[in-house]
Structures are given as structure tokens and as C-alpha cells.
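User: Let's play a game. I give you a shape written as C-alpha cells, and you guess the letters that built it. Ready? Here's round one.
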């Protein structure tokens, strides 16, 4: 009989959003006429930009013609036309990333979880708390020691490093999921300096960079001095361009980033990751990569930015309602998430039940993102405009 990886037994039995779905489904079964507004899962609702859809159709058509048919993509890192487009996108906001430092993937979640394959299980992993669950779960699955940097009300949910603590791998997300907070350039420089002193690698999730409006907040960690020696950056088109159902993103590993093997050899992290991907990943489909490349054209940027502005306006609607209620929150400005303090000292799941039962509104309990999330709650701005307005009117009617 094969043995199992018993580290899996240490995880929460169900993923956070599975627990939410079970609660909502049970309530819906008991109250079939309830008009439930879902503001929990961070899934987009607007259709993909027209020029992006047309590019995908063209790519699919090419697969049906002998002269333009594509099989395996040679490098496994993504087609050159898309990697060049991503490189150009970085340059548009002042960051120099070469095309051959970019690998195309099927979304940031996959690479955030899989990147740890190339690092030893004896590494100490530092994660800010609250955190996107994939950072924690994928490291616990391999039995790594996970330590936390506290993000809380006192520091504006922007945890900073403790110089007395050593870490080998560091997960940062800015703008943050779930809290919506975003690091300034100086705050990121502090993290970079800490990583360099510890010979650590930062795994930087920039999935929400397109929502940044504050000039003091970098859209890439590579906009900050010293980052190319210690950071890996991951980004996704899921929220930037509505690719939650199409799956495409990219990871940037600078040429300068190396680690030292046990025999003292300097090893390229990019080469390690390329070797891992060559064995375990066959790439993103050609039509999807055609669609992704269209996102970075002038027209693609115009059309996708329209959708982002729509969600940003939804965030303003949510924030305005919370201001009216006197409820404290972070996020919304540089992020599609609003992280609110549960009123009347309620717990996260207590507030979840109240909103579901009294307002028929679904959000995400902060406790599901870590101990510092207890007493806090996440709402998403990715919904329909009128439904967002209706949800906030229902919440205001509760009169906290």
C-alpha cells in the first residue's frame, strides 16, 4: 500500500471558499426565494474586451489551417510575441524586464504554489498574515516551517520585517489580497534590504497591479532598487483583463537571481524553474496566448482599462456606504477589495451569517485568511454595478 503525504492532513479540511459555498447553498436550500448578492469570491463579471476575443478567435482559426497550425511551443516559456508584449507593458510604466526573463503560465495561482518545487523543504517561509491561502497551504503541503509577519489595524495591514527573525522565502502581495493595502516604494525597499541580508528570495504577487492609482505605490517590485537580486514576480490577467475563465499569467525571474547549492555552486533560479516547468508543464494554449497578447496592444489597454474603471467605481460605492456607516476599512483605492472591520465587535463568521441571513449578501470572513483576519471581512468590487448598489443599500438598512 502506498504511503501518503501526511502534511496534507495538517491542512484545514476544506478550502475557505468551499466552506462559504456550503453555507450559502444550505441557506439557499432553506430559503429558495432569497435574492442573494455575492460579493465574496473575487471573480470578474464583465465580458472580456472585444479585441481580445477577436484575437483568440483568430488564433483558434489558425489552428485549423495546415500552414498556421501550432503544436508544442518550442521553449515552453511562452510564445515570443507574448513575452515581448509583456516586456513592452513593463516598459510602459518604467520597469525594464527582458522578454527572456518572462515565462507565460496559466495564472498566478499555479506559479505561486508550484514555485516552491525548486526550493528545499528545510527553508523557513515568511508570510504576511492575513494572506491568500495558497501561500500557506502549498508550503504546509511540503512540510516547511511557516512563520508570519503580522498585518493588522495598527500598521494599516502592511506588515514589515522583524530584523530579529530569519526567513529564506518571503511571500508578499501588493496590492494585497485580502486587505487591499499596498506597499509604498520605501516599504518595499525595506523588505528588499531584509531579503538581501538574509539571502532570502521574495515571491511577489502583483496580480492586482493594474488597479493601482497612487503614484507612491510601485506597480512592480522591479521598480525598486535591489529587487533584481532577490525577487521573483508573478502576475495574472485574471483581474487585469477578465481571464478568470481563460487562465493566463506570467512570472518574471531576473537573470541576476541566483541561489547557492550545498556544494557552493551558484545556481540560476530561472534555469531551475525552467527545468521544473519543462518536466511538469506543457504551456498555455496558442489561442489563449494570442488573446493575452491583444491585452497589451493600445486598443487592448483602452478596452480593458474601461472594465477596470468600472470595478474601481464599484469600490468607491462600497467605500462610500461604509463611510456613511462609520465602519473602518482598508483597500478600495488601489485594489478591487475592501477589507472592513466587523461592526459591534462581531467575529468574521458571525458577521458572515448576519449579512447572509438579514441582507442576503455574501462576503468573505477575514478569519479564513489567517489569525489577524479575525474580526474583519472582505467585500469584492467585481460585481454588477446595480447589484453592488443594492447590496450596500441592504447593508446600510441593518443600521449598525
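Assistant: Ready! My guess for every position:
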Amino acid at each position: 500500500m502506498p504511503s501518503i503525504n501526511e502534511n496534507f492532513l495538517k491542512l484545514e479540511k476544506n478550502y475557505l471558499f468551499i466552506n462559504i459555498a456550503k453555507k450559502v447553498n444550505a441557506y439557499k436550500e432553506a430559503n429558495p426565494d432569497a435574492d442573494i448578492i455575492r460579493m465574496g469570491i473575487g471573480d470578474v463579471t464583465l465580458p472580456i474586451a472585444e479585441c481580445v476575443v477577436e484575437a483568440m478567435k483568430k488564433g483558434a482559426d489558425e489552428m485549423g489551417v495546415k500552414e498556421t497550425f501550432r503544436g508544442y511551443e518550442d521553449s515552453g516559456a511562452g510564445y515570443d510575441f507574448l513575452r515581448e508584449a509583456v516586456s513592452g507593458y513593463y516598459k510602459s510604466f518604467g520597469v525594464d524586464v527582458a522578454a527572456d526573463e518572462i515565462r507565460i503560465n496559466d495564472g498566478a495561482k499555479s506559479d505561486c504554489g508550484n514555485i516552491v518545487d525548486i526550493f528545499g523543504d528545510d527553508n523557513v517561509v515568511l508570510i504576511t498574515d492575513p494572506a491568500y491561502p495558497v501561500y500557506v497551504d502549498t508550503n504546509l503541503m511540503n512540510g516547511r516551517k511557516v512563520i508570519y509577519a503580522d498585518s493588522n489595524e495598527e500598521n494599516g495591514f502592511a506588515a514589515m520585517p522583524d530584523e530579529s527573525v530569519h526567513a529564506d522565502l518571503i511571500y508578499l502581495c501588493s496590492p494585497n489580497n485580502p486587505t487591499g493595502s499596498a506597499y509604498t516604494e520605501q516599504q518595499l525597499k525595506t523588505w528588499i534590504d531584509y531579503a538581501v541580508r538574509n539571502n532570502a528570495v521574495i515571491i511577489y504577487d502583483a496580480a492586482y497591479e493594474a488597479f493601482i492609482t497612487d503614484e507612491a505605490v510601485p506597480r512592480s517590485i522591479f521598480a525598486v532598487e535591489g529587487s533584481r537580486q532577490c525577487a521573483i514576480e508573478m502576475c495574472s490577467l485574471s483581474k487585469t483583463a477578465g481571464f478568470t475563465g481563460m487562465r493566463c499569467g506570467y512570472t518574471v525571474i531576473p537573470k541576476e537571481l541566483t541561489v547557492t547549492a550545498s556544494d557552493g555552486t551558484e545556481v540560476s533560479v530561472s534555469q531551475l524553474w525552467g527545468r521544473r516547468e519543462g518536466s511538469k508543464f506543457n504551456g498555455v494554449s496558442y489561442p489563449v496566448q494570442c488573446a493575452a497578447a491583444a491585452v497589451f496592444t493600445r486598443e487592448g489597454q483602452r478596452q480593458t482599462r474601461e472594465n477596470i474603471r468600472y470595478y474601481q467605481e464599484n469600490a468607491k460605492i462600497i467605500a462610500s456606504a461604509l463611510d456613511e456607516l462609520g465602519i473602518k476599512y482598508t483597500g478600495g483605492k488601489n485594489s478591487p477589495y475592501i477589507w472592513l472591520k466587523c461592526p459591534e465587535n462581531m467575529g468574521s463568521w458571525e458577521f458572515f451569517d448576519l449579512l447572509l441571513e438579514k441582507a442576503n449578501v455574501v462576503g468573505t470572513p477575514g478569519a479564513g485568511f489567517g489569525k489577524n483576519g479575525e474580526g474583519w471581512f472582505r467585500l469584492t468590487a467585481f460585481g454588477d454595478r446595480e447589484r453592488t448598489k443594492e447590496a450596500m443599500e441592504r447593508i446600510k438598512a441593518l443600521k449598525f
